[in-house]
Design goal:
It is a single chain. This protein has 232 residues and is mainly β. The chain has two domains: 13-40 and 128-216, Thrombin, subunit H (Beta Barrel); 46-125, Thrombin, subunit H. Helix content is 14%, strand content 42%. The protein has four helices and 14 strands. It has helices spanning 2-12, 38-46, 79-82, 222-230, and strands spanning 47-54, 59-69, 72-78, 85-92, 95-98, 100-105, 110-114, 124-125, 139-144, 152-161, 167-170, 181-183, 189-200, 206-216. The strands form two sheets. Strands 1, 2, 3, 4, 5, 6, 7 and 8 form an eight-stranded mixed beta sheet that branches. A six-stranded antiparallel beta barrel has the order 9-10-11-14-13-12. The radius of gyration is 17 Å and the shape is globular. The N and C termini lie far apart (63 Å).
Length: 232
């Protein structure tokens, strides 16, 4: 009977993205990535914490990546991290930098906010991956600030694709990791961390699976849209 219940649980749970920033603060300890290649160094060097003052006069947080495109600097993050912002800041250690409104792509849950140059921080050159899709089983990495802890660097494996084109990882994510840029071994951004698996078990209770992570790839016309928006 216990085995049957487990099978039913696995069958009923669906792979729908959720806002990881609403998860409990009681996150397990993360296992830091073990393949410390150039990609992991670049991931850590470009990661920032994003703090948001919302229109409800509360403070939210997420993660972001410091990028450069055609000589201009930006913070790349998830749209749902900043969607109701009055103001936002990128935090690097004890330094803070105000962010200006920028390019929003709601359908992909991606936002690009303007920022000045950050001292002692290495910007990741923004470009589209050289391949359309990462192969199933390929290793990826991201650095984020779950529950305002970090930076934490986490390894993952491409496990599949959702019907809407989102990339599904076997990895880990918790509240505050939303907005992290996920890199392949060539240090190319394959997408932005958007959520985790959420579904219901056979009793109707919500099931959250922090080890199934949803990544939204950068739109094919993203760089062109940046050029149009900022006259690059």
């Amino acid at each position: 009977m216990k085995r049957l219940a487990l099978l039913l649980l696995l069958f009923v749970a669906s792979c729908l993205p959720c806002d990881v920033d609403t998860l409990s603060n009681s996150a397990p300890v993360v296992k830091v990535a073990t393949f410390f290649t150039d990609a992991s160094v670049i991931s850590r060097d470009s990661s920032v914490k994003v703090l948001v003052l919302t229109d409800k006069h509360s403070v939210g947080h997420g993660s972001g990546t410091y990028v450069v495109y055609k000589g201009k600097y930006y913070i790349l993050t998830a749209y749902h991290v900043i969607y109701d912002m009055i103001s936002a800041m990128a935090i690097d250690g004890e330094d803070s930098y105000f962010l200006e409104e920028g390019l929003i792509h709601k359908e992909s849950d991606i936002a690009l906010l303007q920022i000045g140059e950050i001292k002692d921080k290495k910007a990741l050159r923004l470009k589209l991956p050289t391949r359309d899709k990462p192969k199933i089983g390929s290793e990826v990495i991201y650095t984020g600030y779950p529950n305002l802890t970090g930076p934490l660097t986490v390894q993952g494996t491409v496990a599949g694709y959702a019907d809407d084109g989102a990339i599904i990882l076997q990895s880990y994510a918790w509240g505050g990791a939303s907005g992290s840029a996920v890199l392949n071994k060539r240090a190319e951004i394959i997408g932005i961390l958007s959520g985790i698996e959420i579904g219901k078990d056979f009793r109707g209770f919500t099931v959250q699976n922090e080890s199934i992570v949803i990544i939204n790839p950068l739109p094919a016309d993203f760089l062109e849209a940046i050029s149009d928006a900022y006259n690059n």
